[in-house]
Amino acid sequence: MSRIAYVNGQYVPHAEAAVHIEDRGYQFADGVYEVCEVRDGALIDAPRHLARLWRSLKELRIRAPMGEAALRVVLRETVRRNRVRDGIVYLQVTRGVARRDHYFPSDATPPALVVTARAHDRAKMDAGAEAGIRVITVPENRWPRVDIKTVGLLPNVLVKQQAKEAGAKEAWYVDAEGYVTEGGSTNAWIVTQDDVIVTRPAESGVLRGVTRTTLFDLAEKLQMRIEERRFTVAEAKAAKEAFNTAATALVTPVVAIDGALVGEGRPGPVALGLRRRFHEFAERD
Ligand code: PDD
Which of 14, 124, 181, 183 is deepest in the core (most CB within 10 A)? Predict the structure, then answer.
């Protein structure tokens, strides 16, 4: 079946979908994005993803390409046209197409919107994630505004590739004081020896992950102890469990950090339990 992409008002064959060479996303990474899980044909936590998108746009003073309700229609329609049951929908908004110039283009320049959807094999993904992954740690080297979900992901690309070449799946950034911030494309968590689930406060040096926010709901409803505070690499290595969260990873157990096994070096019951129960609490659209 041929894939379809939404590009600036039109649904076009994915293979032919293109943006202009002077799109500011292409020239300056002057744009923002969201990735939303699709499960059984439904968008997961769409209101939270759209709320964050609106925040990112506002922080960068990029106009919204359309209203939230219309954007939801485009997301659903892209999923439908690609017949995605389980997978992801990706959306990207840039400051539009204009002659290359660092200054913002005139207000008459419309923002550019692209939406794509892609299926994945859920059983295979679950099997991979539930086996656990390895992470490496790397020095934090990104700009301070990581709270904005911009398409400027070069530092993330480089550390993820470094992780891959080291036989790991994710890289955890570590700040100058030795505290873990987050992964290259995930939020980072640990479970302490006394069963407290810990992640870094969203206000400092991390993206406020939607999966992270929903996990707080989940942990509270399940009456699990959950805490927002910073943790060091040493604390993570000595933890009972560690895991990552993202729309693309859900809850993925981490079994080794820089080669040191976490706990017994196997996915733990807290991470696996949260992964399996996640969709009871996430919002379906
Ligand atoms: N990444 N931190 C970073 C740096 C991320 O890029 C992501 C998501 C997250 C988790 O956010 P959420 O739970 O809302 O997916 C945290 C997406 C999936 C990506 O870049 O593909």
Answer: 183
User: pLDDT tens across 189-216, in order?
Assistant: 999 999 999 999 999 999 999 999 999 9
Give CA angle at 13 (8, 16), nearest 5°. 80
- Under 8 Å between Cβ of 137 and 196: no
In the three-class reduction of DSSP (H, G, I as helix; E, B as strand; rest coil), residue 273 is classed as helix
Q: For residue 168, what are its two tokens?
A: 């790991």
Express each pLDDT in 209-253 by its tens digit: 999 999 999 999 999 999 999 999 999 999 999 999 999 999 999
**Residue 142, token pair as written in the block:** 């990104």
In terms of phi and psi (left: phi > 0; alpha: psi -120 to 50; beta: otherwise), the region of 259 is left
Q: Give the residue among 214, 248, 251 at the shortest CA–CA distance from 34.
A: 248
Tell me the helices (H) and strands (E) count for the chain, helix number first. 8, 15
pTM of the predicted model over 0.85: yes
**Given pLDDT bands bounded at 50, 70 and 90, which one contains residue 285?**
confident
Query: In the 8-state DSSP scheme, what is residue 16?
Result: G
For the record, the structure tokens of 280 come out as 């009871």
Q: Which of 124, 149, 169, 237 is catalytic?
A: 149
Catalytic, 240? Answer no
Q: Tell me the CA distances in angstroms from 171 to 14, 66, 133, one per residue in order.
A: 31, 35, 11
Q: Which amino acid is at 196?
A: V
Pocket test for ligand 1, best of 154, 157, 187 (most atoms within 8 A of CB): 187
* Measured distance CA(16)–CA(4) in Å, rounded: 9
**Residue-range domains of the chain with CATH:** 4-120 (3.30.470.10), 125-281 (3.20.10.10)
Q: Whose CA is nearest to atom 19 of ligand 1?
A: 185
* Ligand 1 atom at shortest distance from the alpha carbon of 88: 18
